[in-house]
């Protein structure tokens, strides 16, 4: 089994915020795969689909961001999922708005959700997809920025980022993290934008 975790905060007041782009990606994936992420287990909501001989679980922690590790570690332990089959999707202020990067491992950086996951797993060596949300203006508080919503001018870039992240998930599950990195990380944003406009339908909408 593969476990794909999107990070965010539960509650309508957080819908469409920068910190919830991991949830937005899972919402798009669940719609694309025709499943619901509604089963309550291990401090989270889950949904399962099967594709190309693989069983894939999508999960949203319901603990709020700072305790995301409770859900991830609980699911990993209960289903005996190997660390290399875990993929976490989250927002990253160290990447430009709309950029998508896949990594095999790494530190938590400034992200409290990732810090919680690493603490509960006791190991940072698991794949992740980072979606860039940019940095706040000088003098602005980080918490207000990440819990704020995207301005309309950023909608196209973030909608495209969700598409790229979803493609990364498909490649990761079917062909592994190395190929996912090779195919997603090297593509230019301009190339992604032109290709997605012609090839993708049902593009996810980023809420105001």
Question: Secondary-structure map with pairings?
Answer:
Layout: E1 2-6, H1 21-33, E2 39-41, E3 44-51, E4 54-61, H2 68-79, E5 86-92, E6 100-103, H3 112-121, E7 128-132, H4 142-146, H5 155-175, H6 177-184, H7 189-199
Structure description:
The chain is α/β, with parallel strands linked by helices. It has a single domain, classed as 3-Layer(aba) Sandwich (Rossmann fold), CATH 3.40.50.1470. It is built from 7 helices and 7 strands, in the order βαβββαββαβαααα. It has a 7-stranded mixed beta sheet, with helices on both faces. Strand 2 and strand 3 form a beta hairpin. It is globular. The protein starts with a strand and ends in a 9-residue tail after the last helix. The mean pLDDT is 90.
| H/E series | EHEEEHEEHEHHHH
The CATH topology is: Rossmann fold
Mean pLDDT figure = 90
Share in β-strands: 15-25%
Distance between the termini: 35 Å
Total beta strand runs: 7
At the first level of CATH, the class is: Alpha Beta
Shape: globular
- Assign the CATH architecture: 3-Layer(aba) Sandwich
Low-confidence stretches: none
The tally of structural domains comes to 1
Radius of gyration: 16 Å
Going by CATH, the homologous superfamily would be Peptidyl-tRNA hydrolase
Helical amount among residues, as a percent range?
Answer: 25-40%
The total count of helices amounts to 7
Biggest sheet strand order reads: 2-3-4-1-5-7-6
Quick one: biggest sheet?
7 strands, mixed
Structural class: alpha/beta
